[in-house]
Amino acid sequence: MNKVVLAYSGGLDTSVAVAWLREQYGVEVVTLTVDVGGGSLREGVERRAMSAGASKAYVVDARERFVTDFVWPHLQASALYQGVYPLATALARPLIAQLLVEVAQKEGADAVAHGSTGKGNDQVRFDVAVHALDPALEVVAPLRVGMGLSRDQEIDYAIARGIEIPITKASPYSIDVNLWGRSCETGVLEDPWVTPPADAYEWTVDPSAAPPAVEVVILFEGGVPVGLDGERLGPVELVDRLQALAGAHGVGRIDHVEDRLVGIKSREIYETPAATVLHKAHRALEGLTLTKDTLRFNRLVADELAQLTYDGLWFSALHRDLRGYAASSQRVVSGEVRMRLDHGNAIVTGRRSPLSLYDKNLATYDEGDAFDHASAVGFIEIFGLPLRVEAARHGAVGRHHGAAWTWTEPLLASLPMTIAEPEGAGAAG
Ligand code: ARG
Fold first, then answer.
1. Three-class SS of residue 402?
2. Would the CB of 13 count as within 6 Å of ligand 1?
3. Among 124, 176, 266, residue to substitute to test ligand 1 (most atoms within 8 Å of Cβ)
4. Terminal Cα distance for the chain, rounded
5. How far is the CA of 338 from the centre of ligand 1 (A)?
6. Among all residues, which ones are annotated catalytic?
7. Structural domain for 368, as ranges
8. Are 46 and 155 in a shared domain?
9. Contact assessment for residue 97 and residue 103, using Cβ atoms and an 8 Å cutoff
């Protein structure tokens, strides 16, 4: 190993890792800082990398590509890991991995490095993605191979070597942020019964302390949000604005005991105000514009895509093909959704689309009903045919068959009941 490209957040861990890699392996270290939004440590990051001994420091603003190429496809697909986690951390990993590989190739490096620990998902995502893109590159994770220092030890290590220490307050949690969400774990959160302390949250106010409810109208085109309250916005600005607005109303707190790829259950606190609002709004618009068969099938795709992304299999053919299906299914998901942000809740209050499949004349119980009620009889006759045949041959579930009831107990005889009859009824002879 001669030269390694390190994914460098600019924080204490990775600053120490620059020096540690040089000393441990005698290698040249190039740092790569990828800005994926959410208020990362871009300020002064080159200076800190140099102070730690990096030979070069790349800083890449990937915010827009992160949203358009990574976040939007998962919003389009409604992909949420275990039905709840909008995958913020997981989505940024393949992007960072790809940039690591590209910088390594440009720099003629023979290895890349990242600051993940040995028991999380992120190490898997980095390693697997890098090896898919360039099998010749070695991957080193200092925290996995002996750099394990406590925060105080890291500070001493940095001071002894003149490494500039980033000015961040010591957090009791392990935190990862990007534009799509904030992930918070460890510390007191490791007891899944413990109420998350107020300091676990940074992007959301306590819902009970939120200001009066507001409404926001989200404009979608092809399953992708393109505007708020009538104003067209670029992807980064749209997410940032909605993040601030929804967070101020306490929307987007998620408390999840999740199943890691490495087999551990772990308790995670997520703050995803924009993702929470957009996922709900998007599903509401899909309900208006897609057929019931497409909606049903999309749920399978959503779960599969979420799992593959969570598991770090972004660069697999299946992932690519599912993304392709999801994007294609979104051709008609255009229109507006009105949401109320109300003390921690994001509530759909209306949706409309020029491509809507909703037909008031078919749905109405008022005048103008175009639905053919008489045809319902024939439809039900045919629709119910297989069940009638089965019931006749096998005895339906719940049917009184000969002397016994099949598969169930009679209801009427076992439930409290009263029977009223008109006064004097039955008395007449
Ligand atoms: N459990 C989440 C995931 O695997 C988030 C991990 C975030 N990392 C952290 N240091 N908090 O995607």
1. coil
2. no
3. 176
4. 107
5. 31
6. 13, 93, 122, 174
7. 364-401
8. yes
9. no
User: Is the minimum distance from the CB of 185 to ligand 1 under 6 angstroms?
Assistant: yes
Please report whether residue 92 resides in a domain: yes
* Ligand 1 center–CA 15 separation, angstroms: 20
**CA–CA separation, 82 vs 121, rounded Å?**
15
Q: Which atom of ligand 1 is nearest to the CA of 90?
A: 12
Is 90 close to ligand 1, i.e. is its CB under 6 Å away?
yes
* CA 143 – CA 149 distance, rounded (Å): 8
Q: Is 121 in the pocket of ligand 1 (CB under 6 A)?
A: yes
CA 412 to chain centre: 47
24 and 136 part of one domain:
yes
400 has pLDDT over 70: no
Structure tokens given for 198: 């107020």
Tell the residue number behind the tokens 């976040």, with chain if given. 71
As for how many domains the chain has, the answer is 3
Give the model confidence (pLDDT) of 100-139 as tens digits.
Answer: 999 999 999 999 999 999 999 999 999 999 999 999 999 9
Span from the CA of 346 to the centroid of ligand 1 (angstroms)? 24
Please give the number of the atom of ligand 1 that sits closest to the Cα of 258. 1
Is 229 found in the same domain as 343?
yes
In a domain, 423, yes or no: no
Q: Is residue 150 in some structural domain?
A: yes
Indicate if 276 and 130 belong to the same structural domain. Answer: no
- Averaged pLDDT for residues 412-423: 91
Q: At what angle are helices 273-289 and 235-248 packed, to 10 degrees?
A: 110
Tell me: do 349 and 373 sit in the same domain. no
Q: Could you tell me if 197 and 102 lie in one domain? A: no
Distances 80 to 73, 88, 276, 366 between C-alpha atoms, Å? 12, 10, 10, 39
Q: What is the position in ligand 1's atom list of the atom closest to the CA of 173? A: 11
Overall pTM > 0.90: yes
Distance 88 CA to ligand 1 centre (A): 9
**pLDDT (0 to 100) of residue 382:** 97
Q: Are residues 118 and 179 in the same domain?
A: no
